[in-house]
């Protein structure tokens, strides 16, 4: 007897809704836009003078002077992952405190630590338990991981498809191999982490010297990250739909 169950990839339902792409790009733009707005607000708004560049430098120096500061930064990522704080904000804060290069190294180590810890929680909880609380999102992400392994993790880290913590939970619940998850996380997070820490460092420099040069460099980082994301998405689209 022929199976009359409709296929999930047949008919008009398989066509991607254009609104989703715009929402994803909007999510990517919200964080840098908010950071720029806050920077401008504190620099030129009614609280001008309460936080000048000397105060910020002292705060950053105090944070760097904390014993075992790198471990403290990693602990911040671990706690942030457990309470579902946006990893973009954690990476940006690390870049502002430690600079673009050390900040990127610490942020990458912290993000990986957090990812592995939450992966363990997802593995322990299991797919059925998490599916009850996620409304089906865990199942969709888990299926992509099961089908594509390391490649899926890289794509999910670069493209704004799902929250960082949700991806980690889904990976654990899907029983994806730990080495696949770790390698995919590292490869996917390297370009994103570098872009965010460099952008955060540019914001700090804009605070101290709001010149067009620093503004242009900050904008250039965002454009480069957006272009990289677009190229990756386009390559994946042509890979799965060669005739497009």
Task: Please tell me about this protein's structure.
The chain is mainly alpha-helical. It has one domain. It is built from eleven helices and no strands. It has helices at 18-44, 53-64, 69-82, 87-98, 100-125, 127-134, 137-148, 150-158, 164-173, 178-208, 212-240. The radius of gyration is 20 Å and the shape is globular. Mean pLDDT is 75; it is low at 1-16.
Task: Give a quick rundown of the structure.
The chain is mainly α and 244 residues long. It has helices at 18-44, 53-64, 69-82, 87-98, 100-125, 127-134, 137-148, 150-158, 164-173, 178-208, 212-240. The chain has one domain.
Tell me the structural class: mainly alpha
Helix content: over 70%
Largest sheet: none
Please compute the radius of gyration using only Cα atoms. Answer: 20 Å
**How many domains, as an integer?**
1
Strand content: under 5%
- How many DSSP H or I helices? 11
- Average pLDDT over all residues: 75
Q: Name the shape in a single word.
A: globular
Uncertain segments: 1-16
How are helices and strands ordered from N to C? Answer: HHHHHHHHHHH
By DSSP, the count of extended strands is 0
Cα separation of the termini: 35 Å
């Amino acid at each position: 007897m022929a199976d009359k169950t409709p296929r999930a990839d047949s008919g008009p339902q398989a066509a991607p809704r254009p609104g989703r792409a715009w929402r994803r790009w909007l999510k990517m733009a919200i964080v840098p836009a908010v950071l720029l707005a806050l920077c401008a607000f504190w620099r030129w708004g009614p609280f001008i003078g309460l936080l000048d560049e000397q105060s910020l430098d002292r705060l950053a120096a105090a944070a760097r002077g904390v014993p075992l500061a790198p471990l403290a930064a990693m602990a911040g990522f671990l706690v942030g992952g457990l309470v579902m704080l946006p990893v973009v904000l954690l990476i940006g804060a690390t870049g502002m405190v430690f600079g673009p290069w050390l900040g990127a190294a610490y942020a990458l180590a912290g993000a990986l630590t957090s990812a592995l810890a939450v992966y363990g929680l997802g593995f322990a909880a299991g797919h059925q338990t998490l599916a009850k609380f996620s409304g089906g999102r865990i199942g969709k992400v888990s299926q992509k991981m099961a089908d594509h392994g390391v490649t899926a993790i890289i794509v999910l880290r670069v493209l704004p498809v799902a929250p960082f913590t949700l991806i980690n939970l889904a990976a654990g619940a899907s029983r994806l191999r730990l080495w696949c998850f770790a390698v995919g996380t590292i490869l996917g997070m390297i370009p994103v982490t570098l872009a965010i820490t460099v952008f955060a460092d540019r914001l700090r420099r804009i605070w101290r010297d709001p010149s067009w040069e620093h503004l242009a460099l900050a904008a250039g980082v965002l454009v480069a990250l957006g272009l990289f994301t677009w190229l990756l998405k386009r390559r994946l689209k042509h890979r799965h739909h060669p005739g497009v």
